[in-house]
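Morning F.,

Quick status update on the modeling queue. The single chain you submitted on Monday has been processed. Sequence for confirmation:
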Amino acid sequence: MESLLVPKAALAKRRCAWLAKNSAFAPVVPSDTAGVWPLEPELDSVSLQSASIVEQTDAINPVLSLPAGTRRIEGLAAAEMKRNTLGAVQVEYRPGFVAYHALYEPGRAEASAPDADDLVVPRREAQALQQVVDTLNLRALPPHEAIAAVERYFADHFSYTLYQPAERGSVTPLGDFLQRTHAGHCEYFATATVLVLRAAGIPARYATGFSVQEWSEFESAYLVRERHAHAWARVWLDGAWREIDTTPAAWGAMEAEGSPWWSAITDLWSWARLKFSELQSRDSEAQLHWIAVGALLVLWVVWRSFGKSARHVKAAKVPAAADIVQVPGTDSAFYRIEAFLSKRCSQRSSGETMREWLARIQPYLSQLPARDELVALMDVHYRCRFDPAGVPPDERSQFVARVEAWLRRAQ
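Structure tokens below.
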């Protein structure tokens, strides 16, 4: 079972809106069991996974942050629940923390079958989209192969960036992305993927939500922040909606680089608010106890951030260039392999060793050639990083050549 802590947030980078027309909400009938809300018929042949979710919302009657393919919600004491044809679920609930369990089928989105709107292409974008369709010869390919070709196209020719250069004249932002810059954030990749697939005659939809990627040891749960807001595509394939995400995997790390230095304080404050809300139904003595504990923790973090560090700053001096020691192994050629695999598979998590990361993405690695060579190269990488004697120059040159050879085979 997974655990999630989710703050509600809208995507802040949106330039324009996708309008969900003709998707009115209809009531969800609760089960006879208290707190259980069935969204889809139960299928004996389907193996469901479970996620325990606590999300923070400032809205009255919020839309829930559900995993794709959610079939049932448990443990939610809502007065009313509604769901629209696109799969969005809204509950009658007060602002604050909402806790529930979601049972879902991974890799599948529950929503209505496609209609004419799921093949619409804006006229201003038609020319740029058609160029991609013709380049990849998408209309001549079966849907599975066409989707794979689109994924490879974005993986091989595009990159992630948080900033865009000035637009050129009458060229639309999407046209500029496809024809000139080949770089953008998730909304560019999701929009382009949806519209390219539509231009190829494959029904597709634009989806927004959150990407679950940060594990918190403190809560023993995945922590979902506002910067984890994400956009991707859904494509109709084999009679069901499937998730397609063409945004480069490095986007999460690039977003995290901009996190403020006071994140630890705000994290602690959010955790304290969550604990206080859980104690609202308990006796006042317990509430006062936890309030005191939370206040002491906040004061300790502030002291660590400002008091102790400030005293060290006063005594510190800027080191001379000759005093700066280069950390061994930071120029290891194996980082090129890491970048390659992160772009095509999954990024290495914070605190995850290289060996643990490769073990986690083993299902993807099994499709690549020279897997034994990859393990051998990783061993040399660890020598570059941690062997006190280092790696001799001639062996390091051979290591670089082996990395380049492996990348050529993998590509």
